[in-house]
Design a protein that fits this description.
Elements lengths: L1 H68 L17 E3 L2 E5 L19 E2 L4 E2 L7 H4 L7 H11 L12 H5 L26 H5 L37 E2 L3 E3 L3 E2 L3 H11 L2 H13 L28 H8 L3 H7 L3 E2 L5 E3 L2 E2 L5 H4 L6 H14 L8 H7 L2 H7 L3 E2 L4 E9 L7 E8 L6 E7 L8 H15 L1
Parallel strand pairs: 4-5, 7-8, 10-11
Antiparallel strand pairs: 1-2, 2-12, 3-12, 6-9, 12-13, 13-14
Bound molecules: calcium ion (4 copies).
Amino acid sequence: MRLRAVNSRESGSLLIIVLWIAFGLVALTLYFAHAMRLELRAADNRVAAIEAGQAIEGAVRYVSNLLATVAYPGQMLSPMEFPCEAVPVGEAQYWMIGRDTNDWGINFARPTFGLVDEASKLNLNAPWLTAELIQYLPGMTPQIAAAIMDWRDEDSEISTDGAEDETYARMTPPYKTKNAPFESVEELRLVAGMTTEILYGEDANLNGILDPNENDADDSPPYDNRDGRLDPGLMEYFTVYSREPTVGTNVNNPEELRTFLEEVFSSSRTDEIMEQLRLTGGTGGQGGQGGQGGQGGQGATYSTVGSLLEFYVRSGMTVDEFAQVAESLTAATNNFADGLVNVNSASQYVLECVPGIGLDYAAQLVAYRESNPLQLTSVAWVAEAIGDDSLAIQAGPYITTRSYQFTADIAAVGRHNRGYQRVRFVFDTSEDAPLVLHRQDLTHLGWALGQDTRTDLLAQTKEAR
Ligand SMILES: [Ca+2]
Ligand SMILES: [Ca+2]
Ligand SMILES: [Ca+2]
Ligand SMILES: [Ca+2]
């Protein structure tokens, strides 16, 4: 009996020990299972990010290929011509974040998708751009406008309100004026008086739409005025990339022009056009302005035409006639024209900076092109929209309807809609094959596809479960 009692006590403690060990093993298993699950999830996120990155690489090759084969030279691919929203690549999908320059600053929960036309912006290096022209841009001050000009001009003379080495010597740490062209728009951060608020405005994630944190005052950065409209920074209006090749028959060579026109029109119509150009020779007045004019007269009866728009106005052609020949003509003397503004894609604020258009006509132009989308095949529509020949001639040397540089701002998610990545590329098509001029990772700016896309993706993920 005694022996049995000892045995049962011993086996009792044994049982407790076994139970403890079993409990420990279970706890250990649970712990590792949890750790494994976290590890797996992290690995899954990493895989998703890699997939998103690969989708972006695929998208950029795709765009490059489209620009080389499908796009008409000087024309931007319209979002209708290629997929740019939630495009599947394996388990990943990508979007190209564009801009709606007709309808700017409204509270959208979803960005515009497509390429961004660099010629829709003002080229910081354009020789014709002056402090006076850009001082009315939203957020701009006369001081910053003048400092931008001093930053890029070669001399060290301080312009009115401007800044040269003396100003930058007082900065901590001190630095010098560049006195050379801008290489990027971000370089504006170095210009005297510039702040990140002025440069980036309310659009902290640079997607062209008003995100919740961009319309909640200072509840969350950035500071904004909570007015339900996006007030973007100066970044939005500038580029350093716009440049177009000038090809075709030069309208300032009367013999070549006549030969060319006779290939398109009857010889009597050609005579009329040539005569009209001769008669209007004295009234142009603006020929030789800007970077495109200045060519010597090629015959006493034919004064220099400063731009294609001036040619249109002076030739007496109809809009349709001009559209037939505009692509094959040029008024330029150099092989490339830098910093022309594309009137088909520029926003009202950019158009306001163009001489001859200005604050008076910019809104009118935006309204005209929205209601006359079929008229935009040549620059002639600007003369029609302004309704004043001398102002149109004034604007002529600075505007175009062609674009050769485009931004593809590509955001992507990988499997399970995770691993968000975003990279911005700038393409140049002004020489033979499309070139990537610039590549910038913007993933750190956070989600840029808007609330609607997030909702769509959440619904997708739920459905998949
Ligand atoms: Ca300077
Ligand atoms: Ca935004
Ligand atoms: Ca805010
Ligand atoms: Ca606002």
